[in-house]
Amino acid sequence: MLAKALMIVMMTVMAAAPARAVLKERTLSKTLKVLCAELELNYKKQKRFIETAERRTEKRHNELVTLTKRSQQISLMLYSLPSDYVFDITYACSQATSLYDEFNKDIESGTTSFNYLNLLLDDVRRYDGLIRALENLPPTLPHSKSPLVEAAKKDTAAVVDTTAEAMKIDELTEEVNEGQPYELTESEQAIRDKCIMYAKALRNNYLRFYKYMKADERHYKNVSACLTDLNNYALSLYDKLYNSLTEPDEDYFTVLASLPTKFKSGTSKVKEKYERLEPDSDWRGPVVLFVSILIIFYMSISSALSYLLIVLLPKMPNRVGRYIRTHRIYQDKKEMISYAFGVAVFAIAIGLVKFAVVDNHLILMATSFMYVYAWLFFVIILSLTIRNSGDKMNHGFSSYIPFLCTAFLVIIMRIVFMPKSVMNLIFPPVILCTMIWQIFNMRKHRKYLATSDLTFAYISLAAMVFASLSSWAGYTLMGVETIVWWSFQLAFIQTVACIRDIVEEHEKTRFMTRLRINHHIASSVSDTHLLERMRNGDFIKSTWWLDFLRTTLIPIFAVMSIVLSMICEADFFNSTSMYREMFEANFIDVPDVIQVSMLKLYIALLTFFVFRYVLYVVRSSYRIAKVSNASQQKQQNPNITLANNVMVLLVWGVYFIFCLVLFNVPKSGVSAISAGLATGLGFAMKDLLENFFYGISLMTGRVRVGDYIECDGTFGHVESITYQSTQIITLDGSTVAFLNKSLFSKNFRNLTRTTNYTLVKLPVGVAYGTNVEHVRKVLVDHLNAFYDKYKEAHPNMRRPTINEKGFSVVFSEFGDSSVDLLVIFWVLVEQRIPFNGMVKEQIYVALNNAGIEIPFPQRDIHIIKPAEA
């Protein structure tokens, strides 16, 4: 505003400065001619900006007058308010701090413009020197005798006839001083006089601008000092208001003890506050009554329109009526739809009044608050309507009614600027009654509420209980601010819950159906399994935007809702400056070490969700790319454990560095901390470091998550690999964790490092004399037939239980009582134990059916009797 206009004038002046300078020419005569041309060009250029500069100077002066009047009006308002007018004081303080901030923003660039004053003065001195140098050229001219120069002083914007014929050379010069070594010719003297004329005109313009800017500087300093004092006083009142939140007034039991006196005092306060004055005030008497009538009038109109929507529209014989009568959504939610429609109509009507009335501050403020309240009410109703159906929706609305009525009462107290003493008399019994109303409503409706609405209703009840206890204990302002804060917070939370439910419903219905079609997913795959894969990032190319909504935007908005509700509550009480200072103040402030404020903590928390989503996208994309590449090359599942851990370290490492910068932790502090930790923890972390490097070795490919390993007699599949231990799940379901160092020292076996199958050799013995080839044929045919039936019974196997080599029978050795054979096959490691048992059973069945004897060891015992004596 002011500073911007000042900067424009300064740029105009700088643009009018000489863009060229005369240098040494071949002769003095040519130097004078070049100098005259340069000065004439600069003078003409400067003339074009003078009118614009003068208009801007006038505009700047008018803005300065307006600013001065505003500051003086706020000063009169602020210094005249008694301490009991809390809302009036907060309003006046807000006006003062806002004007101060506005002035500082505008003057921020303009204050540096005052530094150009010295440059302007330098230009004036420079042209003074040039004028003296020109006048001292022989024949020497007496100073300040030129009528054209005097005219230029009076009107530098006057059109100057620069032709040689118009120059009165004889009037410009005195007698020629004798004794000079040379004299300018008449033509050179005429050029010299033109140079003097233009130099003085330019010099006078610079001097005039210098005087204007010097005056502006004085005015700005005076206004700045006035606004600074006003802002400091407003901040001191904010401090008193903040202290009043923690310093109680009389508790309400004391008030009840002297109720007649308090009632009489409150009545006199109301009369003093709202009675009509002469001349009429914009904040008293008829205006307050008009605002009240206006609110009641528009509430009546919105209620009537809601009645028309719910009763008359379905009875209409046209297409609209038939659609409403038959549409299921309207039949289930017609009451809530009518409420939402009525509130929306009320908000629109109030908004139109707000934009139509521009000359009454009370009406503007009242319509603004009612407009905000109406939209908060509308958001809550709309969220209940979208998220619930039937009785749950109506019961949810009923559970919020007491709190919303309390919030409406608080807004009315704020609109009429109710004195604190009157508010202390009215608010405690009212909040107690509405709290009891809320308790009875909760007992009546809690069985029918959805989980989220039940939680929100209980929090609303808790807010009302806290506000009631605070007001009865003498902390009325704290109770009022609690109600206002939770009103905004409830609207934001309802919005978050509504968006979350819409996203989840879309994800589970339409999006999942589209995903099955696009990725050719069989209908036999359950929705639960498919949703788990979606959450795991298996379809990141299709779900990235939905994941971004669900895991990033919704949590960010949920966290931001706390701050936004506090900002809205602060704006409601015109205490934004106080809250801003509270948020920006460092509650941990150690210079050159760390600085932490609430604002920085919130920024760190919000960026946490962003970094988490980035890590999720990068890991999912990398895993999909590796699996796709492995399947194309017909390889086993790729090992991505190390890459995943590297990505985790990189992303969270960047986040950690971001937090260090955010909390103003210097590099020197980080280095000192790192050096101390390295020295102190180096010895203590010896084993940790060994496990760390062994863990990296495992992650490079020796072990993958999902591999089956055997170590120290323990068999199971790897569930996770960290930098310190490897966790496996054994076949009996127990969890065993091996330190990475232990795996290497005990020489573990990775059974699925190169293939997912393990070789099984089952011994079989048949009697001597049995045809081995016949046994081989019987076993192989029977086992193959068994495996075919097994595959039919398990159609959803990810891979074959045994590989394509199938079953084979080989001769092993000659036993003591049998011919020993081996049934050999490759089986999936995870199926080894159960499938081996089934194969053994089938071997027994096959040999029995074929009548092949399975021998077993037999021993003859000879008992030797002792010889008779």
Supply the number of helical segments.
27
- In the sheet with the most strands, the strands line up as 6-5-4-3-7
Structural class designation = alpha+beta
- Gross geometry: extended
Average the pLDDT over all residues and give the rounded result.
76
What's the total number of strands?
10
Report the uncertain regions. 1-21, 145-178
Rg value: 46 Å
- Name the helicity range: 55-70%
Walkthrough of the structure:
With 869 residues, the protein is α+β, with helices and mostly antiparallel strands. The chain has 27 helices and 10 strands. It has helices at residues 2-16, 28-80, 86-113, 116-135, 147-154, 169-172, 186-246, 252-257, 259-274, 286-312, 319-326, 328-356, 361-387, 391-415, 420-445, 451-472, 476-518, 527-535, 540-572, 576-584, 598-632, 641-662, 667-681, 686-702, 740-745, 772-793, 832-850, and strands spanning 586-590, 594-597, 708-711, 714-721, 725-730, 735-739, 749-750, 757-766, 808-814, 819-828. The strands form 3 sheets. A 5-stranded antiparallel sheet has the order 6-5-4-3-7. Strands 8-10-9 form a 3-stranded antiparallel sheet, covered by helices on one side. The chain has a two-stranded antiparallel ribbon with strand order 1-2. Strand 3 and strand 4 (714-721) form a beta hairpin. Helix 10 (286-312) packs antiparallel against helix 12, helix 14 (391-415) runs antiparallel to helix 17 and helix 26 (772-793) packs across helix 27. It is extended and about 165 Å long. The relative contact order is 0.04. Mean pLDDT is 76; it is low at 1-21 and 145-178.
